[in-house]
Design goal:
The complex is a heterodimer of chains A (54) and B (241).
Chain A: H1 2-9, H2 14-53
Chain B: H1 8-15, H2 18-40, H3 54-81, H4 86-115, H5 124-143, H6 149-163, H7 166-176, H8 196-240
Helix pairs in contact in B: 2-8, 3-4, 3-6, 3-8, 4-5, 4-8, 5-6, 5-7
Classes of the chains: A mainly alpha (54), B mainly alpha (241).
């Protein structure tokens, strides 16, 4: 338990290091989810239009 | 070669199969890089454990510059050779580059607070990277600012080329001006100046960021191709009715 707390504290730098990693993870996840949502919407629209044009 | 890749279907046939490889490299290199960065690499003798921010700050900075270089290169191809997919690639890369630049700035501020005692200084490196973020936001806004999509693409391509002057300014700002930011310690003449125990996790994270960027870029291009096909069908439907 103490080892885990030491790891989280990172000798006092944890309050700077972890927000940096969390912010990076959040931005990377947002970019991935945004790209996936746009792709799904575009392909769904295309499928609907191609179905309607047949 | 450029004409060969101008066909969207052919473009996706070539780059589509790369997608699972990009995901695999991103996950494996990112996982290994994170483990090494957080558990195996030593604390810096001066900066202590705050140096671990480097493992996301530096790769995101490289990607911020790399994505803009991709945009500028494809903008030039679009303007000179009228390559139909070049605008698409440039457009797809802009939000990704903006994301990496935001990561670079925020992680840099957190690292700066521990190293310099301040979140921000208006020195050459930090200011030129902030200008890069504004350039990315300008590119995104400019594309959507015109009713005629092709005019927006052309305006954004011109801005991308003009803004490319900022890339060497960012790279060499730490040499040309006196700044708080440290000079390059990896991409420099004479080879990397950091110990392999820190260099390897840094390079692994950089590879992971590059693979993630490539995967999202391929998916974004696929999205744009699908959107354009859908628009063409809508226009054709209007003409028929």
């Amino acid at each position: 338990m103490q080892t885990l707390l030491d790891f989280i504290r990172l000798n006092g730098y944890g309050i700077y290091v972890w927000p940096a990693f969390v912010f990076a993870a959040a931005v990377l996840a947002f970019m991935g989810l945004r790209v996936r949502a746009r792709l799904r919407a575009a392909e769904a629209l295309l499928t609907r239009l191609e179905g309607g044009s047949r | 070669m450029l004409n060969f890749l101008a066909n969207p279907a052919r473009f996706m046939r070539i780059f589509g199969p790369l997608l699972p490889w990009c995901w695999a490299v991103a996950v494996l290199a990112g996982g290994a890089g994170l483990v090494l960065a957080l558990f195996a690499s030593p604390a810096d003798y001066q900066q202590g454990d705050s140096v671990r921010i480097m493992y996301i700050h530096v790769p995101s900075a490289w990607m911020a510059l790399g994505a803009y270089t991709v945009i500028a290169a494809f903008s030039a191809i679009a303007l000179v050779w009228k390559h139909p997919l070049a605008h698409v690639v440039a457009e797809a890369a802009a939000p990704l580059g903006a994301g990496f630049t935001a990561i670079c700035l925020v992680t840099g501020m957190l690292w700066g607070k521990t190293s310099w005692g301040t979140w921000w200084v208006w020195d050459a490196r930090l200011t030129s990277v902030l200008v890069l973020l504004f350039l990315y936001l300008g590119l995104i806004a400019l594309r959507g600012a015109f009713d005629d999509e092709s005019r927006g693409q052309r305006a954004a391509a011109l801005l991308a080329l003009v803004g490319f002057v900022n890339i060497p300014i960012i790279k060499f700002s730490v040499e040309w001006w006196a700044t708080l930011h440290q000079p390059a310690s990896v991409l420099r003449a004479g080879g990397p100046a950091i110990h392999p125990s820190m260099l390897w996790p840094l390079l692994l994270m950089a590879v992971a960021f590059m693979a993630y960027f490539a995967a999202l870029l391929i998916l974004s291009v696929r999205t744009e191709i699908a959107r354009r096909k859908a628009e063409a069908l809508i226009v054709a439907g209007r003409r028929q009715s």
